[in-house]
Design brief:
The complex is a heterotrimer of chains A (495), B (433) and C (281). In chain A, β9 and β10 form a beta hairpin. Chain A contains 20 helices and 17 strands. In chain A, strands 1, 2, 3, 6, 15, 16 and 17 form a 7-stranded mixed beta sheet that branches. Chain A has 2 domains: 178 residues, Periplasmic binding protein-like II (D-Maltodextrin-Binding Protein, domain 2); 257 residues, D-Maltodextrin-Binding Protein, domain 2. Chain A starts with 6 loop residues before the first helix and ends with a helix. Chain A is 43% helix and 16% strand. With 433 residues, chain B is an all-alpha fold. Chain B folds into 2 domains: 176 residues, no CATH class; 249 residues, Orthogonal Bundle (MetI-like fold). Chain C starts with a helix and ends with a helix. Chain C has 281 residues and is mainly α. Chain C folds into 2 domains: 61 residues, no CATH class; 213 residues, MetI-like (MetI-like fold, Orthogonal Bundle). Chain C contains 14 helices and no strands. The relative contact order of chain C is 0.14. The chains are: A alpha/beta (495), B mainly alpha (433), C mainly alpha (281). At the B-C interface, α5, α7, α9, α10 and α11 of B face α2, α4, α5, α6 and α7 of C.
Amino acid sequence: MIYGTGKKKVKIMVSAIACVLAAQTFTGCGKESSVTGGGETIVLHILENDTAKSEGYLEELLNAFNEAYKDKGIQAVDANMDEYTDLAANGPYGYGPDVLYQANDKLMTYAEDKHILSLAIEDFECYEYVPEEAWDAFKIVLDGETYYCGVPVNIQEPMLFYRADMMPENWEEEWDDDGNGVADFFENWNDLYAYSSYLRENDTSSNKDSRYGFMASLNNLYLSSQFIFSYGGYVFGQNDDGTLDSTDVGFSAGNTAYGMNALKQMAALMNEGCIDDTITLNRYEKVASGAYFCAVSTPDTYGLFVEKLALKYEEEGLSASDAQAKAEENLCMIEMPALMPADGDLSTDSADMGEDDWVNTIVMGGVNGYGISSYTEHREACIEFVDFATSYEMIKLRADTLGIAPTRSDVAQEQGGLTDMIFNSLSEGRIYLMPSIKAVDQIWVPMQTIMSDIAKDAFRERNGETVKYPDLNSLQSALETADKNVYDAIYTLSD
Amino acid sequence: MDKKSLRKSSFPVKASALIMGSGQLMYKQWVKGLLYLLVFAATVVYMILMGAEDIVGFFTLGTEEADPWLGTSGDDSVIMLLRGLLAFFIIIAFFAVHFSNIRDILEIDKKVRAGKPVPGFVKSVSIFMDRKFYIVALILPVAGVLVFNILPIVFMILIAFTNYGGDTVPPKLVDWIGFGNFVKILSLSDIKSTFFKILAWNILWAVLSTFINYFGGLFLALLLNKKCVKGKAFWRAFPILAYAVPGFITMLAFKFMFSYGGPINYYITSAGGSAVGFLDIDAGIKAKLIGLFVNAWISIPTSMLLATGILSNMNTDLYEAASIDGASKWKQFIKITLPFVIFSTTPVLITSFIGNFNNFGIFYFLRGGLYMDGYFLASDTDLLINWLYNLSIDNNYYGIGAAVSLIIFIITSIFSLTVYVRSSAYRREDTFR
Amino acid sequence: MKIKKRFGKNSIIDGVVTHIILIAVCFVFFFPVLWLIMASFSKGGSIYDFDGFFPGSFSFNGYSRLFTDTTMYDYPNWLKNTLFIAVCSSIIGTVLVILTAYTISRFQFRSKKMLMKTALILNMFPGFMGMTAVYLLMVNFGLINKLWGLILIYSAGAPMGYLVQKGYFDTISNSIYEAARIDGAGNMKVFTKITLPLSKPIIVYTALTQFAWPWSDFILPNLLLKNKDMWTVAVGLMHLDETQFTRFAAGAIFIAVPIVILYFALSRFLVTGVSAGAVKE
């Protein structure tokens, strides 16, 4: 009955299918039309990060490149995509960028499946200026062969942002025991703890919510990494051949439980905002308003801190340019204090501690760099572009415009100061590089959960609730659970 | 028309059975015959050019791995799966056309033999348009749903039987692994226990939130319906404002409000209290209640509109009679209003139950990024759909995710089909008109 | 009248209580929206310089920057894309839903039950599990980065939510149709000349819901639109930097306004449409 005179139905369906087929045949490969198009000129789609774009660096880079390569018929344009666009999903179908700038952990997840090209790094002009550690961030071993899949540009590590005017007026007398001209609370964590608790005690506001010392989102593995890596913790172990062994998850290795104890102590000097993302989100305003003495962030956010502080000064009646100048002068960025207490007890007076009582602060960091999509149709042109973008002039311009810490030693030295220090930290092992393998994706949520739970303990104690991690053993077993959770996330479901 | 009748049939019928449309042409049915022939030719060309290859690809899922470094284009397993599926859809469609073709030629054949005139193309189209209006009307909707809803779902069901995911993503080749994923789910105690814990909460959530939203809307509508309320449009404006703000923005706003740095905690601490972790790891029941509240906030405006409309359709005589009989307001509500409203809205209730059961946004936005002890890649507020997201999108286990969603799907569809088929609204459909 | 007198005193209390509850409920609904509106006028640009719910100082910057400062966030362009997608999907989707609902309500045919059950089951499927397939389909058809690709998906998915509309058509008395049929009108004619004029409320309701969905959807456009200048408002807002809260709020309020206006302009139809649709008899 239903099929009785269903022929017309069928006909329409057939024409629909024919349309589908036509669409398939004609547009099956969307790539050709999108890339070449204009005949001889090769167009490269460059994906940069949002900061580079908003600060105008990307435009300068593209203009400089297009000027230089006008005769060779290569033109670079902004890929105009989300900065974290997924190359693995888009690249194979022709919708990805040709060249992309990203952090090493992100970039290298693409390398395992060969979504980005391996490069002959010796051919790049920057090769000899970039230290081996930075290159290693882009190293991958496939079937026993070593490949490099990215060209380093700059180092990212969590930094301390503070307001110079909030330092104690007499810091040179009271807070500089070694008399080296650098306040002790920027040199070791016990003094930072001491100064933070001093600020808390002198918080005169009615609800004691207006004066804090050191502030960071303690649930954030990246921003609070010193509590793990300084104490011998690691992400993944190493195989004999130097490659990473993701079956060996090491957040509980070494004395990390001490580190967690320190984290808990630090939490007690903050507010509950350290348990979730609150501090990460409000640090700019709260540093500007003077509620936080110092907060943790990455170097590329310096501009944001200054912007908010300048806004504050403007409200107080300064002109825009004066406010900007005053904010820039007042807002300082430094590396985290270099020494942590070996026993994880931040409350010990630093004067009572000997040389052996300290461990070096090690933070998690990353190297940002350029990778080239395997799906580009103009590999040579892309290499030209990356070579150009990592040249002395461009990296210098980038450092000047964005305040990044370059991996090129010549620029780092010339910039001097902090830039040079960050550069040295990398080569001296004070930065634990984010592992460049895919499995690293699975560490974040389990670690975020455990770290926020430990931080919360400080507030459980304050509110008279049952404390979940009263001693080192419980902290240790919590970390081991986290290791197991990471392992499970990686391996339970794969064979 | 079994084989026997075909063997006995005339030559044009046989010809049409072999080559679509040829018989019609022999009977001088030019347009119709040509159309059939065209479809036939198109299908043959398609099969030769792509179809055959796509179907082979469907079974092998690729034999040659691509190496993007060398620029060798290998096989993309998931695309092959999809194209194979498309090929099957096309073949099924072809047989449907072929079937109609044979019916058509037999009918023509019969008419010719009986010496009756065969209607021309235009005429037969217009007859068809009228007699089978429902087919004409449903063609496009059904085709659209077929390609953009059913095809993806079939695709996903098939994925449940492959090892797609984890390290096995293109360019690596994916393989059929039969029930491997299901075996894995059932043999891993972590996953099993997580599954049941989440399922229990999910059912509770769906029941509670459907109940709250439904009766919340009804309550509000009744309130606005009261005689003493003046300026109904004004009062109704507030829930509608709430409706107009896109859901994801509302959810982000609520997340912020309940966060440690948010305004609610600001007032609590200003008043001298200590901050409350509404959504943090210890939140437990608090987070669940907030989820229910936010969901109600988002959904009640719609259900209020619905209830308002239904109430305006109600026969008010019943109330008059009831109040004269001295029945209390509450009794009137229970005996008259409620049965009427519930009876009228069973299908809507089921849809809203399903919507709540698969409500992804609430806990994704409010409380994402937590994996709790005792849960495998999930937290205690996550619904099955959030867990699926964690498994398949965040952690790339597409195959496992697909298998889990297939299990969920079977459970929920059995449940809702049972309710639906038993519901008065559906039963009425039997005797309807 | 008599009854009213008897409850005279009670009804005053009743009225007061009712209004108190109403005010409370409206406050709950209005407050977050009000807060968002205030945030959109905040001068600081971030919610963290608020005192509780209230911004420190107010300005129009949020809105003006939305339309002037477009290097990073091209809001006008997003708005244009969103409008195009929503209007087209609304038109096509409404036609399809109305056709489906009318046909299923009006006609008896053998596979009807099966179709209805299938639609119900399909709705049960977790949507994003099919996203991989949708993405690959669109890749295959070359519709990535194309607004039409989204319109296609929204329109094609629309008939799945035909239940309310079907309910509406169920309420139209069969005798009207029978009379028309006896007068010799074909089914097509019955649909265009009789059904459509009677269904204004439900068409308005459908068009509005079909408009509102793409207008505020985030998941699909985020999956299919790769280039920033193809983005819709929802995708764009989700990608705003965390420090841009004022802009976020302003952008959100700005796209909420058309929906509110449409609702009030059409509320007459809506209530009739949705109610008749939900009521089976």
